[in-house]
Design brief:
The chain has about 325 residues and is an alpha/beta fold. Helices cover about 40% and strands about 15% of the residues. The strands form 3 sheets. Strands 3-2-1-4-5-6-10 form a 7-stranded parallel beta sheet, sandwiched between helices. Strands 7, 9, 11 and 13 form a 4-stranded mixed beta sheet that branches.
Length: about 325
């Protein structure tokens, strides 16, 4: 095992962040979670981690946390992250995500931290020329959300050149699944991700799932997307930490296989044993037929491989979490009171 490090995890009470916290703790690291709980859940923070409820917009709170702990690295997940919302309110994303990240970068540099792992997005590539999308694809963000992430990547580039803050930017599409320990899973309000929405339709929490277009040039007419297990993402975040000993890195992350909307629905039906009511609607503007990220470079450089590459195993974990926690973390919080 590598030497234990002290890591600050912003957004560590959120979906991907909390799974990364669990991975860090499993590897013997000390973790401080910094989260405003706007989208995260206090019940997702394990007792082994220190928890600071604060906002990255609060520079005083940031200075305090960096003065109280000496961090070896920062893992940065905290962000507004709903693509559709960013199209309706671009300023909130372009301003909010970038300014809070600049606050964090400056605080890290001031405190002498020299490593930062950034949860970026494959939405940097809104009009890819090649599928799967590799790191040589031209950046053309598909939304203000993607643009805000690119702005942060550029800020990190200059933080490295000017201050020696090495960074790893990980670009991926759809995190999915749940931790095998049964304590962590996906719980958004409102929920916008396809897999939990399909499961809601299977359980009757939603009247149906709507397919936005079934006439695309794909194997079944519905859009194909890349789903990557959240624990595989956490594993990648830890692996790049060692790479930062030498240089800053940028990696795209995908599970290597894309799945259509119809295939997701069929998998949920197989795993749950329930029928999913389906309604077919018109295409959504801007939806591309296929979006899959390549992970060949991180596989080659760091030996990363998905541990949960197939759709059924991803959905089985998500269903186990939903079945055990029908009210999500809210149910856990209520049980603790």
């Amino acid at each position: 095992m590598t030497t234990p490090k002290t890591i600050l995890v912003t957004g560590g009470a959120g979906y991907v962040g909390s799974h990364c916290v669990a991975e860090l703790l499993d590897h013997g690291h000390r973790v401080v979670v910094f989260d405003n709980l706007r989208q995260g859940h206090a019940a997702a923070v394990p007792p082994e981690a220190a928890f600071v409820r604060a906002d990255l917009a609060d520079e005083t709170a940031l200075a305090r946390v960096f003065s109280e702990w000496r961090f070896d690295a920062v893992f940065h997940f905290a962000a507004l992250s709903v693509v559709g919302d960013s199209m309706r309110d671009p300023h909130a994303y372009l301003h909010g995500n970038s300014v809070t990240s600049l606050n964090l970068i400056r605080a890290a540099v001031t405190a002498g931290v020299r490593k930062l792992v950034f949860s970026s997005t494959a939405n940097l590539f809104g009009s890819p020329k090649r599928i799967p999308i590799d790191e040589d694809e031209a950046v053309d963000p598909g939304s203000p959300y993607g643009e805000s992430k690119f702005m942060i990547e550029r800020a990190l580039h200059w933080a490295d050149r000017c201050h020696g803050l090495r960074s790893a930017c990980l670009r991926y599409f759809n995190a999915a699944g749940a931790h095998p320990n049964g304590k962590l899973g996906e719980d958004h309000s409102p929920e916008t991700h396809l897999i939990p929405l399909v499961m809601d339709a299977a359980t009757g929490k939603r009247p149906h799932i709507e397919i936005f277009g079934n006439d695309y040039d794909t194997r079944d007419g519905t859009c194909i997307r890349d789903y990557i297990h959240v624990c595989d993402l956490a594993d990648a975040h830890l692996r790049v930490l060692d790479a930062l000993e030498e240089r800053s890195v940028r990696y795209n992350l995908g599970n290597g296989t894309g799945y259509s909307v119809r295939e997701v629905i069929s998998s949920v039906e197989r795993i749950t044993g329930r029928t999913v009511p389906v309604k077919v609607g018109p295409r959504r503007p801007g939806d591309l037929p296929v979006l899959i990220a390549s992970s060949e470079r991180i596989r080659r450089d760091l030996g990363w491989e998905p541990r949960f590459p197939d759709l059924d195993s991803i959905i089985a974990g998500a269903w186990a979490w939903r079945s055990a926690h029908p009210h999500g973390f809210r149910g856990l919080a209520a049980a603790a009171e």
